[in-house]
Amino acid sequence: MNGQFFANQDESIYSSRGLKGVCFPVREDHLTPALERELEETCRILREEGFEAAWRKIPWDGDLDAVLASGEEERLRTLYMAESRDVLEDLRDRACPAAAWSHAGNREEDLSAAPYLIEEPALVDADSWIKIWQRERGLPWQILETDRLLVREFTTGDMEAIRALYDPEAVRFLEPPGEDLDREREILRSYIEKIYGFCGFGHWAVIWKETGDLIGRTGFSLTGREDGADASFGYLTRKDFRGRGLTMEVCRALLAYGRDVLGFGLVCAEADPANLVSIRMLEGLGFSRCGSREGQVRFLLDLGAEGAGTF
Fold first, then answer.
1. What pLDDT score does 14 carry?
2. φ, ψ for residue 266 (rounded to 5)?
3. CATH number of the domain at 3-137, please?
């Protein structure tokens, strides 16, 4: 999504200038003819997917300067795939986006410091390369797009916009963020690191494409398998964007995402008995009442049931 359509957002989130290329620095003592062939084939596939791709031999003295892209911007737009511990540590010390890859000649290397370890890079698709790079750059993943909305991960810069979602009507039924903005940002930072990083899903930001404004939050959370559900579903739309069908639009898209991408079968949700708008929304999405808990009406939706494919 080109950044020019999101004038109110930080350019680094939506700019079309994303991942440019993938580079494989290889220690000389690990390099074999078979590994060279594997690297050449991997780079060929990456180029077909639209990336710049190359492998570089690291000299015996371990100096990385000869293999790094020239200029800070080029280095930041390159994902470096380390295959040795010392190279990985050096790349991370230099703040270069770096993951690790495993091959027949480096099985004894300790690459545990890398958040991503890839064994067959030739099989990795373009979207996964981009997402690995985004995670290393601290950029949010784009989850999906509808006609009017875009769903992406939150960033700590969203905190003020998140607080603006909680008007008096919303706080009747939902607990708003606290008054200490710095503390709330730290909580959000931890959520981004631990929930997005570990689970691969969570609650996400809903963006109005026309302006780039954050106008809602929606998504899934872990349930502890109550009622056999795989996840709990929830949503909130900013007051001035309610009544336009936007909540239904994004919820339908996300439930389909939960089924088709995340593999969820049974999803639960809750609503306050007095929140008639939310109850009607859940029923309109196909959720069925299944009792109550702690004063909340409980709902379940079987995403694999007949008719769920209409999302």
1. 45
2. -105, 130
3. 3.40.50
